Structure formats: structure tokens, C-alpha cells
Amino acid sequence: MLEKNEKKLIFDAHFHFYNCKKLGIFEFPADFTGTWAGISCAHSKEEWELQKTAPSSVIQAYGLHPQNASIENVAESTDFLELLIRNKQISAIGEAGFDFFTDEYKNFRKKQEEIWNIQLELAVKNNLPLIIHCRKANEKLFEYSKTLSKLPEVLFHSFMGTAEEGESLLKRGINGYFSFGKQVFNNNIKVINCVKKFPENRVLGETDAPFQYLKGEEYTKPCEIKKILEEIEKLRKEI
């Protein structure tokens, strides 16, 4: 599901259809050439109801986001996720993972771990790819690397580890892909090293639209995936 097509495919490894539609930015200009496809993650029933109306070029994912741990009704959300899996309405689980970026998020470490384990177990049981959100918690990826290696594919969305950490995850048998967004424009040394050092078929572009925007911007549009992919290609040519 996560591999690039042999044809000229403009692939966005991670964005949010619900939020883009609400903002009116899920649109592509007339000069946008190429076949577009993208993976969208929903994190509530409300988000899902809109996301499921997306065109077929949108690959459907649903997950219990670690940033929502403080308000997540675990039993209800798990039941809904299992329903989507049984009905074969999603192609991947996510975003799932850990976020220890703020003290507020850290206060819910245990609950983050609880919903992570639920989703990881469901991904293994149903042979589904997992889309991972991880901030300030890379040690958890290694803690669960043995189980992650059982999955068909793992997408490390907006990967913020070092190139050495990413390479180590692959060496542990994880069929991993690493996606990068507008950090490629910020002279982020870790991101640039990853883009340059990872095998080409492991590097993907993402917008995280409408989020992950640059200073002075209000949001990121899905159509901006083109310039992100162009920058990734430019960086790789510098190897």
C-alpha cells in the first residue's frame, strides 16, 4: 500500500482529509499534472463520516491519536476501529504512537501506551500497515521493534529521529517507510540527513495538510506535495 507506483505518481504519504475539506483546501490547481494519491488519517467518528466520502485516490486510515489520550473513550473508540477493520473500510491503522513533546502529553503516558498496544495488536492480528506518530519518544519504537517487524508495512510519519536510528529500525526487520514534509525547507539537519542517507525506496513525501506549515503560513495545502517531493529529489541529488 505504501510503495510508490511505477507510473508517475504524486503520492502524499500523510494528510488529513477532514480538516482540509473543512478549510476548503482539498483542491488542485489546473496546472497540477500527474496522478495524485494520498493516505488520510481520521481520529474520530465525525472525522470518519466526512473522510469516507473522499475520492478513491484517498487511502483510508483511522487511529487513536496519542495527543487525544486525555479525552479518548478507549472502549468506544476501539469498538469503532474494530468495526472499520471488520468491514474492510480502512487500509491502515493510524495515526498511532507516542507524543511526549509537552508536559500535558507526558501526563498521559500510560494511556498513550494503552491505546498504542490496542492498535498494534489489531494491526498484527489483521495484517494491516501501521502509521506512526512519534515525538520525543523514539525509544518506544525500539522497545516495540520486535512486534513492529511482524507488520506488513510501517510508516514513520514525519520521522524526527536520526538517520542512524532509522537505519537501525530497518535492520531490526521492520518494513519501514519514512515520510517528510516541510521540514525539508527548514534546514533541519536530522531530516536532511535522513532524506539523503535512507534507501530511495524508503523515503516518502507528505504534507500533513493542513498542519505542519512554515512560518508566516496559515496552513499547508495537499497540492503542495509536489514542491515537497521536488525538494526531496533535489536533496537526494546532492548525495
Feature tags:
eight-stranded parallel beta sheet, 38% helix, 10 helices
Short description:
With 239 residues, the chain is α/β, with parallel strands linked by helices.
Show the helix and strand layout.
Layout (H helix, E strand, L loop, with lengths): L8 E7 L1 H7 L11 E8 L2 H7 L6 E5 L11 H13 L5 E8 L3 H4 L2 H18 L3 E6 L2 H6 L1 H4 L5 E3 L6 H9 L4 E5 L8 H9 L5 E3 L19 H13 L2
Parallel strand pairs: 1-2, 2-3, 3-4, 4-5, 5-6, 6-7, 7-8
Main sheet properties: 8 strands, parallel
User: What is the β-strand count?
Assistant: 8
Average pLDDT confidence is 96
- Beta-strand content bin: 15-25%
The H/E string reads EHEHEHEHHEHHEHEHEH
Report the uncertain regions.
Answer: none
Number of helices: 10
Identify the overall geometry. globular
Radius of gyration: 17 Å
Helical content class: 25-40%
As laid out across the biggest beta sheet, the strand order is 1-2-3-4-5-6-7-8
Q: How would you describe this structure to a colleague?
A:
There is one protein chain. This protein is α/β, with parallel strands linked by helices. The protein is 38% helix and 19% strand. It has ten helices and eight strands. Helix 8 (163-171) links the parallel strand 6 and strand 7 (176-180). The mean pLDDT is 96.
